[in-house]
Amino acid sequence: MKVLLIGNYVADGQTSMLAFRRILERELPKAGCDVRVIAPAKHLTRISPNSRLWKWLGYIDKFILFLPTLRSHLRWADVVHIGDHSNSMYVRWVKSRPSVVTCHDVIAIQAGLGQGYQVSWTGRLFQRLISEGLGRADLVACVSDMTKRELLRMGLATEDKVTVVTNGLNDDFAPVPREEAARLIARFGLTPDSRYLMHIGWEIARKNRPGVVNTFIELQERAKRDGRQPVVDRLLFVGPFLEPQLAEPLAAHGLTDRAQNVRGISHEELRALYSCATALLFPSFQEGFGWPIIEAQACGCPVFTTNLPPMNEIGGPGAVYVDPNDPVAMAAAIEEAAPRLGEMRRLGLENAVHYSAAQMTANYIAAYQRAIDARKAGK
Q1: How far is residue 330's CA from residue 334's CA, in Å, rounded to a whole number?
Q2: Is residue 138 in some structural domain?
Q3: How many CB atoms lie within 10 A of CB 241?
Q4: Looking at the domain assignment, is residue 89 inside a domain?
Q5: DSSP characters for 249-296?
Q6: I need a labelling partner for 276 at 20 to 30 A (CA). Which of 61, 77, 329, 370 fits?
Q7: How many whole angstroms separate alpha carbon 81 and alpha carbon 75?
Q8: Which domain holds residue 114?
Q9: CA 319 → CA 24, 299, 306, distances in Å?
Q10: 173 domain-assigned
Q11: Which residues contact 200 (CB under 8 A, 6 or more apart)?
Q12: CATH code, domain carrying 245
């Protein structure tokens, strides 16, 4: 089977989408597929990303200058896989071949309809084009059951043209031996014996960094009131620096030196941080899948995450599910679970096995064949 995989525009810096592309680029040939990976080249966005022109020049790169490249490879393919629904407008240009589009979430589409955060008129137009592309695809592969339910609820595709292909781990996440982990995390001022609560994600509102900060503060205050040692005494953010409104409450409680950010880390360092963390707190309000949950579990890190789908659908019995709106309850849940963190590690490792890249790839090959067969049958 000849698979033409359309990747994301690298200049957009969508780390998770680039990781998703790497999985398929690596695994599909192992499964016997011929693969070509193409993506829009960076021709015009050589100016500062802060320029007002940057976004528009990117659109020209993606939706005008890329089209000749797309057409030239199209004749070779048996099936076209658009790896990110935000590129689903390409469906109109690949209609001569069966198409599969991966839908990672409908969060931005909902925003374009006035549900959620506010977007500009250009954003609303862009999301309308994305929606139209999803409706034209031969098959839409959703990364979770929740994403499928939302896609169908919004009428973005019909049941016969939607399937679920659950994400697999995008790299070799596994526990790091203690001595190796000690070497890898030493530059962050940490050791394998450090008791730190970890969060990974951007500063966007749905990632709920305020909830993480307030839960950490509550854990320290509860321990102080009871005259005992807290479950965790450090807070680690993997991602952008804390915004002032988050740094202020930490300072007010005398905890500034207990919180830190790390960014630009290697994959090996990330694995080591997961492996040594007391726990990952991932109280996101909304996700399409939630990769950090299974990344952490695959490294033996206990996970506390939101009691909402898809988080409570993928975390398995090893995760503890919490109300993301209630830092006091989240702190209580972490304290209550402290005696069984070892059991959470074991159950998490068992759960992560179900999210292999090989299984994800096999499911995509089945999806490709379904799209090809449906096209032949004239459906």
Answers
A1: 6
A2: yes
A3: 12
A4: yes
A5: HHHHTT-GGGEEEE-S--HHHHHHHHHH-SEEEE--S--SS-HHHHHH
A6: 329
A7: 14
A8: 2-168+357-376
A9: 28, 13, 10
A10: no
A11: 237, 238, 239, 280, 282, 292
A12: 3.40.50.2000
Rounded Cα distance, 7 and 276, in Å = 33
Same domain, 361 and 316: no
pLDDT tens digits for range 200-253: 998 888 999 999 999 999 999 999 999 999 999 999 999 988 888 899 999 999
Cα 280 to Cα 245: distance, rounded to the nearest angstrom: 22
- The model's pLDDT over 86-124, given as tens digits with 9 standing for 90+, comes to 999 999 999 999 999 999 999 888 888 777 667 777 778
State the Cα–Cα distance between residues 15 and 345, nearest whole angstrom: 27
Residues 6 and 149 in one domain: yes
Residue in the structure block whose two tokens are 């192992």: 30
Buried-exposed string 27-58: b where 16+ CB fall within 10 A, e elsewhere: bbeeeebebebbbbeeebbeeeeeeeeeeebb
- Write out the DSSP string of 289-344: S-HHHHHHHHTT--EEEESSTTHHHHSGGGSEEE-TT-HHHHHHHHHHHGGGHHHH
Q: Which two tokens stand for residue 302?
A: 């206990």
Q: State the total domains in the chain.
A: 2
Identify whether 84 is part of a domain: yes
Tens of pLDDT, residue by residue over 157-197, are: 999 999 999 999 988 899 999 999 999 999 999 999 999 99
Q: 3-state class of 213 per DSSP? A: helix
DSSP string, 219-233: HHHHHHHHTS--S--
Same-domain check for residues 84 and 117: yes
* Pair (159, 193) in one structural domain: no
